[in-house]
């Protein structure tokens, strides 16, 4: 008597309609599935600072699967898995670093949206806003920053040309003991909540020809110590020309980027570190098939900023790039680029940390393809 009743109960429990049904073809009009690929052949040299090295190789610079869409008139989702990234599950947020995006956006009304899940921080500027697919090399802060973390946020379209956003995020993906281990410092303690607060403003002026993208954030990395991060982003665009400029200022009571910290002895951590950066990118569309880019950047690092303000190094970068798009209906681009970086360590850094200035020169030829499968 119980067997058929139990079977019927199981059958009824399984009748909940799935969000996506193969019988409803309309749902696929709201789902986007893509495969992003950047593969390149590279040749590079290192010179100076005790380095004398040449190399040639093929590299998968970026490979990712992305799925996004609208499940309901007020519910969107976004997911991206980068295959050439770390796959170890992080001890704090319980996701691996290869899952960059996994969040839901809820539309409260025409002006207010809520976000929850693993997402990009609402940091200002335009360098960070590009997908890693389109950036051959980030400046020093974003090369070492934790870009994708778990949390919640909201965006409010206060006026037609002005949007404000706010986020509460984890400041790291690893637990204290996994990240810092046996670091020797009296003031390094685990906080109750390693949290990061981000505020953001986006403005548009002169019929969209000039835009601003500013942000300020305060993170609590360890107890009573963290990072103050400010970004001022600007963009001018007119016809076939775009020019973007970002200024970034990151004062870190605990060095979260690791650039200064990498010079110290094992089980030590740099404190009161300052990074100041400039990033500029110009784009010009020569024709339907050819586009030229030029990226210029500098990054300056200081140690013991509250006291002696020791200048450690300044790095410089230049990345001229040429895109060629052979197909009209497919966004597949062939590219050739030169990446030049120079790392200039000061006399103070040379005397105290036994380091020397060096440069890296690199040529890349490859394919960039954001392939939309559905």
TrEMBL record:
InterPro entries: Porin_O/P. This is OprO/OprP family phosphate-selective porin. It comes from Psychroflexus lacisalsi. The lineage of its organism: Bacteria, Pseudomonadati, Bacteroidota, Flavobacteriia, Flavobacteriales.
């Amino acid at each position: 008597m119980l067997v058929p009743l139990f079977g019927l109960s199981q059958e009824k429990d399984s009748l909940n309609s799935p969000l996506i049904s193969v019988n409803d073809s309309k749902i696929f009009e709201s789902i986007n599935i893509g495969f992003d690929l950047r593969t390149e052949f590279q040749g590079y040299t290192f010179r100076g600072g005790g380095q004398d090295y040449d190399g040639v190789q093929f590299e998968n610079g970026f490979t990712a699967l992305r799925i996004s869409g609208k499940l309901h008139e007020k519910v969107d989702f976004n997911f991206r898995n980068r295959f050439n990234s770390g796959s170890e599950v992080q001890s704090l947020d319980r996701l691996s670093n290869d899952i960059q995006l996994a969040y839901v956006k809820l539309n409260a009304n025409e002006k207010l949206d809520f976000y929850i899940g693993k997402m990009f921080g609402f940091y200002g500027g335009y360098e960070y806003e590009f997908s890693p697919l389109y950036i051959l090399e980030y400046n020093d802060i974003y090369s070492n920053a934790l870009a994708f973390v778990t949390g919640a946020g909201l965006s409010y379209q206060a006026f037609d040309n002005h949007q404000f956003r706010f986020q509460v995020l984890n400041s790291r993906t690893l637990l204290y003991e996994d990240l810092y281990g046996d670091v020797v410092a009296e003031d390094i303690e685990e906080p109750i909540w390693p949290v990061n607060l981000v505020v953001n403003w986006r403005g548009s002026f002169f019929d969209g020809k000039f835009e601003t993208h500013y942000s300020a954030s305060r993170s609590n990395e360890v107890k009573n110590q963290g990072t103050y991060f400010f970004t001022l982003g600007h963009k001018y665009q007119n016809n076939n020309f775009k020019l973007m400029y970002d200024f970034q200022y990151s004062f870190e009571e605990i060095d979260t980027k690791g650039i200064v910290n990498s010079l110290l002895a094992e089980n030590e951590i740099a404190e009161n570190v300052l990074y100041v950066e400039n990033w500029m990118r110009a784009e010009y569309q020569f024709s339907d098939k050819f586009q030229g880019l030029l990226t210029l950047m500098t990054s300056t690092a200081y140690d013991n900023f509250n006291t002696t303000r020791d200048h450690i190094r300044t790095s410089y970068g230049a990345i001229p790039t040429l895109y060629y798009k052979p197909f009209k209906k497919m966004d597949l681009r062939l590219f050739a680029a030169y990446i030049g970086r120079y790392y200039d360590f000061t006399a103070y850094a040379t005397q105290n940390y036994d380091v020397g200035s060096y440069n890296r020169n690199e040529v890349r030829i490859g394919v960039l393809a954001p392939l939309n499968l559905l």
